[in-house]
């Protein structure tokens, strides 16, 4: 009997929880959180919306619109977090510094943060922001999974070549603990792989096995 990944139902019922400009405005630091990060215009909001089958995260043709930590509730113990987009030149320097300070405080001190999904535009991977996030994740021992977004903008062969190259570069510079995949929001490419990562970090994989055993 083929059963859906247990994270699917939770993602489909996800709801907006709150926005925080500072770490002390975040929800209670308990349970499981997975944060989504990406350079401005890397397709972060589109990926979040596709994974949750909703329009939770604001998408915009103007990069840098996400200026807060946005929390989305999956259940009483599990949340997704949309982090501010970085790297857009028209954002004022003081605002950039504010984002950076509070992002670092969130990433460095949040006990409930179980993993980080990093979005990279497949046409422009490994930007300075991406390298900083890779450095931080490895130094902090934080699990990271990379979505090479907008994979539909390239042929499959070209997209696969970029995947293999970025994979090799990451393994060489940061080790083999970081996972990576192709992803396309409009084509719904890579959803199952992403759900599997989320379920593992949120300790839902065992729950799925229990359901499977009871159904046999």
TrEMBL record:
<keyword id="KW-0547">Nucleotide-binding</keyword>
<comment type="function">
    <text>Necessary for normal cell division and for the maintenance of normal septation.</text>
</comment>
<feature type="domain" description="EngB-type G">
    <location>
        <begin position="30"/>
        <end position="204"/>
    </location>
</feature>
<protein>
    <recommendedName>
        <fullName>Probable GTP-binding protein EngB</fullName>
    </recommendedName>
</protein>
<keyword id="KW-0342">GTP-binding</keyword>
<dbReference type="GO" id="GO:0005525">
    <property type="term" value="F:GTP binding"/>
</dbReference>
<dbReference type="InterPro" id="IPR027417">
    <property type="entry name" value="P-loop_NTPase"/>
</dbReference>
<dbReference type="GO" id="GO:0000917">
    <property type="term" value="P:division septum assembly"/>
</dbReference>
<keyword id="KW-0131">Cell cycle</keyword>
<dbReference type="GO" id="GO:0046872">
    <property type="term" value="F:metal ion binding"/>
</dbReference>
<comment type="similarity">
    <text>Belongs to the TRAFAC class TrmE-Era-EngA-EngB-Septin-like GTPase superfamily. EngB GTPase family.</text>
</comment>
<keyword id="KW-0717">Septation</keyword>
<dbReference type="InterPro" id="IPR006073">
    <property type="entry name" value="GTP-bd"/>
</dbReference>
<dbReference type="InterPro" id="IPR030393">
    <property type="entry name" value="G_ENGB_dom"/>
</dbReference>
<dbReference type="Pfam" id="PF01926">
    <property type="entry name" value="MMR_HSR1"/>
</dbReference>
<dbReference type="InterPro" id="IPR019987">
    <property type="entry name" value="GTP-bd_ribosome_bio_YsxC"/>
</dbReference>
<keyword id="KW-0460">Magnesium</keyword>
<keyword id="KW-0479">Metal-binding</keyword>
<dbReference type="GO" id="GO:0005829">
    <property type="term" value="C:cytosol"/>
</dbReference>
<keyword id="KW-0132">Cell division</keyword>
């Amino acid at each position: 009997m083929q059963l859906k990944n247990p994270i699917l139902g939770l993602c489909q019922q996800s709801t907006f929880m709150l926005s925080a400009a500072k770490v002390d405005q975040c929800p209670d630091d308990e349970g499981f959180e997975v944060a989504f990060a990406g350079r401005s215009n890397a397709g972060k909001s589109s990926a979040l919306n596709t994974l949750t089958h909703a329009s939770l995260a604001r998408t915009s043709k103007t990069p840098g619109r996400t200026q807060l930590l946005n929390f989305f509730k999956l259940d009483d113990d599990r949340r997704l977090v949309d982090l501010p987009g970085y790297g857009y030149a028209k954002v004022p320097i003081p605002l950039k510094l504010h984002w950076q300070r509070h992002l670092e405080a969130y990433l460095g001190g949040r006990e409930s943060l179980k993993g980080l999904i990093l979005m990279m535009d497949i046409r422009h991977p490994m930007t300075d922001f991406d390298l900083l996030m890779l450095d931080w994740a490895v130094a902090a021992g934080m699990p990271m999974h990379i979505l090479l977004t907008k994979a539909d903008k390239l042929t499959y062969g070209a997209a696969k070549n970029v995947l293999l190259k970025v994979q090799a570069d990451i393994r060489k510079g940061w080790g083999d603990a970081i996972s990576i995949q192709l992803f396309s929001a409009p084509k719904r490419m890579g959803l199952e792989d992403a759900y599997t990562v989320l379920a593992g970090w949120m300790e839902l994989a065992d729950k799925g096995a229990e359901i499977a055993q009871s159904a046999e």
